Amino acid sequence: AAKSRGRGQIGYYAPEMNDRALERMRLENELRRALDGDELLLYYQPQVDAESGQVIAAEALIRWRHPRFGLISPDRFVPVAEESGLSLALGDWVVAAACRQLREWRRQGRSPVPVAVNLSVSQFHRPGLDEFMRRQVEEAGIAPADLILEVTEGALMSHTHQVLSAMANLQELGFRIAIDDFGTGYSSLSYLKHFPIDALKIDQSFIRDLPEDGDSRGIVSAIIALGANLGLKVVAEGVEKREQFDYLLSRRCTIIQGYFYSPPLEAKEFVQWLDAREGR
Ligand code: C2E
Ligand code: MG
Ligand code: MG
Ligand code: MG
């Protein structure tokens, strides 16, 4: 049995690897092209304070509208960008696009909803992120407080001195910083003591099985308490169901992001969603 399994594995595995390598190369080339063209766009998903009913922010989530493959999710091409040296270009594109959108909303006389952008590890490791961000908002005529920077724990774990000083400068300038996918990064909690952080986002894997699953309840309650004790905002993401929502509110976590309120929407639809909500 072992022999046939071994043989089967080789015969089955090799072509698959080739396909994947090929697809990756194809995606990489196409992504290079997409970065120069107009195939990338940002979707926006509201974060709502369930207590006041206020929309307190919108997370910008990148999409790739491919002429042949249709809408491609970031889980498929962000890793490709990371591995092919395109992640800085992609990251810069996202920041610029979010600033452009904020400027446009300003121009239309809307009270701006702060936009949360996802920054990659490589952006944090490039010297001068603080200066880059300052220039971006200045050129767009918006304020640092209009942006929230989402980082994963992994980004904080290496090159810590440089990352730390960039983050301190960013916060000093008025940008807010949120830890994304909190609880999934295998990191020690000690960084919470050293890094300037404004918010924790509970990873959706902990939200998914609420309220039935006892472990999820335990982890979520602990993160909420941790955030409260450290004076941080806590955002629950991936909230889909009424029961998840009710549980979070019962634990006094009131900032909710997820399909429960709205999926990520194109800018135009997002604005329509906001208007409908405010009864405009
Ligand atoms: P993330 O930053 O943790 O974003 C949350 C993801 O959860 C988004 O997936 C969002 O569409 C999805 N989501 C929101 N509400 C729900 C819900 O109620 N149920 C479920 N099942 N999912 C929900 P998306 O847009 O596919 O993005 C996936 C990941 O790709 C993001 O995770 C982020 O890590 C990365 N990403 C997205 N945009 C960017 C970007 O501009 N730059 C970088 N570096 N990464 C990005
Ligand atoms: Mg995020
Ligand atoms: Mg997340
Ligand atoms: Mg994620």
First-residue to last-residue Cα separation: 68 Å
> Radius of gyration, Cα only, in angstroms?
20 Å
Largest sheet: 8 strands, mixed, barrel
Please trace the helix and strand order, writing H or E for each element: HEEEHHEHHEHHEHEHHEHEEH
Strand order of the largest sheet: 1-2-4-5-6-7-8-9
Q: Approximately what portion of the residues adopt beta-strand conformation?
A: 15-25%
Bulk shape? globular
- The poorly predicted ranges are 1-13
Total strand count, please? 10
The amount of helix comes to 40-55%
Ligand names: ligand C2E, magnesium ion
Number of helices: 12
Report what the structure shows.
Residues 24-278 form the EAL domain. Keywords: Membrane, Transmembrane, Transmembrane helix. It is a single chain. With 280 residues, this protein is an alpha/beta fold. It is 52% helix and 20% strand. It has helices at 2-36, 74-83, 87-107, 121-125, 129-140, 153-157, 160-173, 191-194, 204-207, 214-230, 242-250, 267-277; strands at residues 40-49, 54-66, 70-72, 115-118, 147-152, 176-182, 199-202, 233-237, 255-257, 265-266. Helix 3 runs parallel beside helix 5 (129-140) and helix 5 (129-140) packs parallel to helix 7 (160-173). Ligand C2E is lined by residues 45, 61-62, 73-75, 78, 91, 94, 118, 120, 150, 180-181, 204, 237-240, 258-259, 264.
